[in-house]
Write a structure and sequence with these properties.
single chain; Rossmann fold; seven-stranded parallel beta sheet; six-stranded parallel beta sheet
């Protein structure tokens, strides 16, 4: 049943992207509730989300950086002539931001560039009578979106995820102040934004979620199966901690646990990780499956005895927020192990909805894996409680309704 008649614009870095299916799922959840969503993407995705539904979304998504500077300047001129108050407000914001960032610095020049793309977005939103702009990721998309919001004379909200505030917190205080509401996926992120002077009274938590009512049949948790199959999935980069999992596997190989590890995903560390496996004589135990479509990945997760995500902070300070793949495993009744990092403990509550260990600690990770399979009754109980956690806090529709409530409050 439709709850309002707002026309909502969605802006994301890449849409619809294979690496950000939570954004497309959120759009579809709102559309299923009767909302009118107009999608915008900064870049054309390098890796498109799979399926006809995603293809249809891609066909109606406007790509901002594919519009040339002439069209941006024409849009800005049109706003200056037709909506002087909005133009003045936006240019004053830009002037303040450029001065604060530092005149003639690269970041300030980029802000001007982003402002001009925001001008095109603002004009297009006015032509479609958009009433609210929602933005995913607090860095470049919000820099474009907050100027577009001012130029279009409509409120905006933005959602902070992970490296967009961990590594690139430019103007966070100002973004929060100008937004109708700022959305955080975790309490951890709220604390991060508070350190940059953000007004926490304007921040609300809305989780990225999964379909807890999906038709996937919950598998029977069987920790005594031989060999037990442990899976991990993600881009093969430092922050995913797959090297730590390999080190833990070397420790497990000396125990009595009969196990295999399957690594799904691709990335720049593929060759290094394969070499690490070979050097540890684990080639018969650890298999690299490569990249796979999201729907195929969901089916693969269901075949596992346990899912491990050994996330850690990388050398640049980047780390995961609350990985959706953990939610997907928990949603299917697969017991999970992860690390005490970022917002993960808000999803994986130690010894309640899964097991946690310190980041970059192979000994603790190996011990957690052994504990999981040594205590089958506890493992089954963890999986049951984890499913309840998904239903009551990380359900996709539940969080779409939370978002819609925030949108409806905007004047």
């Amino acid at each position: 049943m439709k709850t309002n008649n707002k026309r909502i614009a969605y802006l994301a870095p890449e849409l619809p992207s294979l690496s950000a299916t939570f954004v497309t799922n959120e759009i579809w959840a709102l559309e299923d509730m009767g909302e009118e969503i107009h999608p915008y993407s900064i870049h054309r995705p390098q890796h498109n989300a799979h399926g006809q539904k995603a293809a249809d979304l891609a066909a109606r998504t406007s790509i901002l950086y594919e519009h040339n500077m002439k069209s941006n300047l024409r849009a800005l001129k049109w706003t200056a002539m037709s909506h002087k108050r909005s133009f003045t407000k936006a240019t004053l914001q830009l002037t303040f931001d450029v001065i604060k960032t530092g005149l003639f610095r690269k970041k300030a020049i980029k802000l001007v560039y982003q402002f001009l793309h925001g001008a095109w977005l603002a004009k297009d939103m006015r032509s479609k009578n958009i009433e609210h702009l929602h933005i995913h990721f607090a860095h470049v998309p919000t820099q474009i979106g907050m100027y577009a919001s001012a130029l279009a004379g409509i409120p905006f909200t933005f959602m902070a995820h992970a490296n967009d505030i961990f590594e690139r917190p430019l103007l966070i205080k100002e973004k929060i102040k100008r937004s109708h509401k700022t959305i955080s996926i975790s309490n951890f992120n709220i604390n991060v934004m508070a350190k940059y002077g953000g007004n926490t009274d304007k921040i609300e938590i809305v989780r990225c979620g999964v379909d807890s009512n999906s038709n996937y049949e919950k598998p029977q948790v069987s920790p005594n199966s031989k060999p037990v199959v442990i899976g991990t999935l993600g881009r093969l980069v430092e922050k995913k901690g797959i090297d730590t999992l390999i080190d833990a596997a070397a420790i497990l190989a000396e125990s009595r646990l009969d196990f295999r590890i399957e690594v799904a995903g691709d990335g720049p560390l593929m060759d290094d990780l394969k070499q690490q496996v070979k050097a540890a004589n684990l080639s018969e135990v650890i298999t690299f499956l490569g990249s796979m479509p999201h729907t195929e990945a969901l089916g693969w997760i269901k075949t596992l005895d346990a899912f491990v995500l050994a996330g850690k902070k990388d050398s640049n300070g980047d780390m995961d927020g609350i990985p959706v793949v953990l939610m997907e495993a928990m949603n299917f009744g697969i017991p999970v192990i992860s690390t005490q990092l970022s917002g993960i403990p808000e999803l994986v509550i130690h010894k309640q909805t899964g097991l946690l260990c310190p980041p970059d600690d192979a000994d603790s990770l190996a011990m957690a894996i052994q504990d999981l399979f040594r205590l089958p009754e506890q493992t089954n109980w963890l999986a049951e409680v984890a499913k309840e956690r998904i239903v009551h806090e990380f359900d996709q529709d539940l969080n779409a309704k939370r978002l819609l409530h925030i949108f409806n409050q905007a004047a």
